[in-house]
């Protein structure tokens, strides 16, 4: 579950913000996030990535020979967005901000057991390797963990309820 202090920092749009339970369900169910990092010139770099949410942290499984990984190693501050919807009154999403922490070896080969990764890898395998049940390591990816310092969420489906619609 997300720390209520992290959620309470959202000032604007509280009426359409997700509850902790809604946020946890949305992040657990959604499949793709967009990760914003800073390049060496300070320009933003945004890229899609699969992830898992454990109720407290967002776990990202990134290719280690990528612009994203290079950016993360140099400056681990990121913003991540997960969103959905097509029409205005269907839009919902979450923005998470914070500092990434590398966990385990990079690239991850799976040769050694890393207790801190057990839950994340179990969740990842269940979400993306449906039916497999085991985490697949290709020796090209590494894990980073975002325990957000700020979370903002929105659910425009609540707007109709606020306006009596």
UniProtKB/TrEMBL annotation:
Gene3D superfamilies: Electron Transport, Fmn-binding Protein, Chain A. Keywords: Oxidoreductase. The keyword Oxidoreductase applies. Residues 20-154 form the Pyridoxamine 5'-phosphate oxidase N-terminal domain. It comes from the Bacteria. It comes from Cryptosporangium minutisporangium. This is Pyridoxamine 5'-phosphate oxidase family protein.
């Amino acid at each position: 579950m997300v720390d209520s202090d992290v959620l309470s920092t959202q000032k604007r749009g509280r009426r359409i913000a997700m509850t902790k339970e809604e946020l946890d369900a949305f992040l657990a169910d959604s499949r793709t996030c967009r990760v914003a990092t800073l390049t060496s010139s300070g320009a933003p770099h945004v890229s899609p990535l699969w992830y898992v949410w454990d109720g407290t942290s967002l776990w990202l499984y990134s290719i280690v020979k990528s612009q994203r990984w290079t950016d993360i190693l140099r400056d681990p501050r990121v913003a991540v967005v997960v969103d959905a919807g097509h029409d205005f009154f269907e839009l919902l999403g979450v923005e998470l901000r914070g500092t990434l922490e590398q966990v385990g070896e990079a690239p991850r080969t799976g040769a050694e057991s890393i207790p801190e990764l057990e839950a994340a890898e179990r969740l990842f395998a269940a979400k993306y390797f449906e039916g497999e049940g085991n985490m697949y390591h290709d020796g090209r990816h590494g894990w980073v963990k975002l325990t957000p310092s700020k979370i903002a969420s929105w659910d425009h489906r609540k707007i109709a309820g606020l306006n009596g619609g």
